[in-house]
Amino acid sequence: xxxxxxxxxxxxxxxxxxxxxxxxxxxxxxxxxxxxxxxxxxxxxxxxxxxxxxxxxxxxxxxxxxxxxxxxxxxxxxxxxxxxxxxxxxxxxxxxxxxxxxxxxxxxxxxxxxxxxxxxxxxxxxxxxxxxxxxxxxxxxxxxxxxxxxxxxxxxxxxxxxxxxxxxxxxxxxxxxxxxxxxxxxxxxxxxxxxxxxxxxxxxxxxxxxxxxxxxxxxxxxxxxxxxxxxxxxxxxxxxxxxxxxxxxxxxxxxxxxxxxxxxxxxxxxxxxxxxxxxxxxxxxxxxxxxxxxxxxxxxxxxxxxxxxxxxxxxxxxxxxxxxxxxxxxxxxxxxxxxxxxxxxxxxxxxxxxxxxxxx
Length: 360
Prior knowledge:
- This protein is mainly alpha-helical.
- The chain contains 17 helices and no strands.
- The N and C termini lie far apart (88 Å).
């Protein structure tokens, strides 16, 4: 969801958002997690591993001054160019290109924890979650005090269905953030809520989404996710209220437009549903793909079920159209039954006889 500043050392916001880079409103929801929106929105500060990369590079440069012919010199200019290529590819969602660039950085500098963690983020975006987790494991070995590799590993674990492990990594990332900055990281709470949702712990998810949003004003994604989770647990009035409020403040938030379109249809308000859905498809046609919404965007089961019904026009008893159709069918059946009854046949015979008399 973000373009990146042209810095020499940067750490991209991908699946799990690095701390100190709270997300702003994206033009459209993206990829398989809301956090991936970080790739499309501008950021104003370096992330933790940016700071990690710069000292590391400096240290490497200093080691090359030692008269040790066995110590290979690290070409910082080449690394900088490759990083630019990787970030450019990332911002264009060209994951293979980005992965190749990060791999080349790692080939030049095998202990570059930032590059290894960035490649892990890229591989998660590619669906190579096992390989991504291996990258994060290595980054954690090289930079044990940095929170971001734990965040990234947590997302890779979610991708692998290892939600409990992900919760552990998010807790560890938050702990490391407190040690480094003296405060908790709201992103860890947002990601923890995602993992709790994966475990079906929707009440816990609502709580942690709201906590993340409270900790970082303007952090819109947990608010959107909290609204969807509230709908999942049956708190419809609160969910709809929050969705509408978010759209008043952030009219570009397609996710809430799509959710409300489905809800309006279910409620029988077809005019609102049609208008909202038309706007959704113009802005992000992926919402017409049920599997994307289920597996990539990861809407809660209830919303996915109702979207399926909406897309396939199957809302038995829940919409005016369905009720009208059912009533029309009952009326037609009643008319057919009446027409075939003995009384109706006797009446028809009498009418024919009378017409015969008149004819004579």
